[in-house]
Automatic annotation (TrEMBL):
Residues 1-127 form the VOC domain. PROSITE patterns: VOC (PS51819). Pfam families: Glyoxalase. It comes from the Bacteria. InterPro entries: Glyas_Bleomycin-R_OHBP_Dase, Glyas_Fos-R_dOase_dom, VOC_core. This is VOC domain-containing protein. It comes from Pseudoneobacillus rhizosphaerae.
Length: 127
């Protein structure tokens, strides 16, 4: 068994698609209309056959509440691995990404956290 798709609640699918593809460099894999919304998945350009990230609309009240509460508490919704966190941090800053935590050593890893503009905090980690 393996993880094929993981989802992330977003406030606006189009805005999220733009952020995750243009700012973070993910590649759109699926974009299929589903009623009022779309099934939009992205993959890492380094592993296009790997796990897909689903940009899921937060239209359900429980999804909105969950997203709002973890954001308010400063809890990242998900984590992405990077090879060089200081290089990634600098590149993302240059693209206008707003960080809530600069690269910080935490035991055996270094982490940083940014706002995805779609209702989530995202953590990047270098092991």
């Amino acid at each position: 068994m393996k993880i094929t798709v993981t989802s992330l609640f977003v406030q606006d699918q189009e805005q999220a698609l733009e952020f995750y593809s243009e700012k973070l460099g993910f590649v759109k894999k699926e974009d299929v209309p589903v009623g009022d919304y779309r099934w939009i998945t992205l993959v890492s350009p380094e592993d296009q056959g790997g796990t897909e990230l689903l940009l899921e609309p937060n239209v359900h009240p429980a999804a909105k509440e969950y997203q709002k509460k973890i954001f308010a508490d400063g809890i990242p919704a998900t984590m992405f691995g990077v090879a060089d966190i200081h290089k990634e941090y600098k590149q993302l800053l240059e693209k206008g990404v707003k960080f809530t935590m600069e690269p910080t050593k935490a035991g055996e890893v270094t982490i940083a956290v940014f706002d995805d503009t779609c209702g989530n905090l995202i953590q990047i980690v270098q092991k």
